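User: Show me a protein chain along with its predicted structure.
Assistant: Here is one chain, sequence first, then structure tokens.
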Amino acid sequence: MTLRYLSLGLLLVSFSAGAGGFQAGPQSARTLGMGGASVAYIRDLASIYYNPGALAQMDSSTRISLGGLANVRRTSFLGTDSRHLADTEFQPLPGGYFYAAKPLTDKISVGLSVNTPFGYDTRWPDSWEGRNVVQQARMNTLFVQPTAAYKINENFSVGAGLVYAVGRMSQQFALSQYDDRNVTVRYAGSGSGFGFNAGLYGKTAETLSFGISYRSPVTLNVKNGETTAANIPAADAGRYPTSARLRTEVNLPGALSVGMANQVSKKLLIAFDFTLTAWSRFDSLSYSIGEAPAMATQTVGRRYEDAMAFRVGGEYAHSRLLTLRAGVSYDETPIRDEFITPELPDGNKLGGSLGLSAHLSESLSVDAAYQFEAAALRTSRVVQANEDVSNVGGTYRTHVHTVSLGLSYSF
């Protein structure tokens, strides 16, 4: 097994992402319509995920909210030297959410959050010039968070939840030393980990509220991943084993968020969020392939930086039957130019969203939303002296589309 083979294997978990990077969009249709502004917004059960402290300030009803999400990233690449153009395939990444909340007493409420906060699915044409770096890359996650909240008084409440996360990643690339593009190596692995979520919600006036929340980092321990090689010529079969064990740890970032919401009028509410995502913990990555005593290990620096995100959303009660929403967002990328890689090119993203709720009855509503994000152009360079990054020189342009449809019910 060659060192180059191992270095390419790193791409399985070398996420190139920003504050929103490989996050799969706001985790409910209502929050998506608000542009992601949610820390001080308590009209959505997604508060269980975004600020557990808000759970205790909801009304005395038992509430359920569920829905689906679809996230589509489209990236175009223009080679620096070749001037060849390549586009990723249209590949929606499915996701979804389920939230439930119930008050136990006047002061204590409990809830459950099940959602898919991180993920991507990148598929380049098999013949594109960067096929030896990546042909396909995919990640899916599922977070389960039982939560409890306590109402200190009519104005303040706190809450916390335990997070159990599972994730699966896969990567495929072609071996560049062969003319046959079907000579490929594939990496796949799944892992799990634990974290926590805590938040505070408060009112400083009848129409003004605020929220503070902290979501801890989660480390996914990939213990039984596998590398497989296909169509290797017989002469090189010993260098590229058909199957080998893969182990690593994937560090998903923590985040600190603060937000405010202002009931400007009887019909109009405005919300604002600021989030700092701790990407700097993804400073390096260690992994191993194979079994002892022939196990190969390597630590590679990534040097990510913490990244900020700003989100503003508005909600307008048009009538008893219809509520309208809109929002804007800006996500900063933590990736420097020399670390851009094609499995998920990332840049500073500016986004806009629209959403609505159709109230079918006093207890049932249908929620829908759409968000569009445009990432700044990013240009990558192949630096021969930098062995940390397998790359291809060129310019990336990325657009992200996210849609969601859900139901909200109370009884």
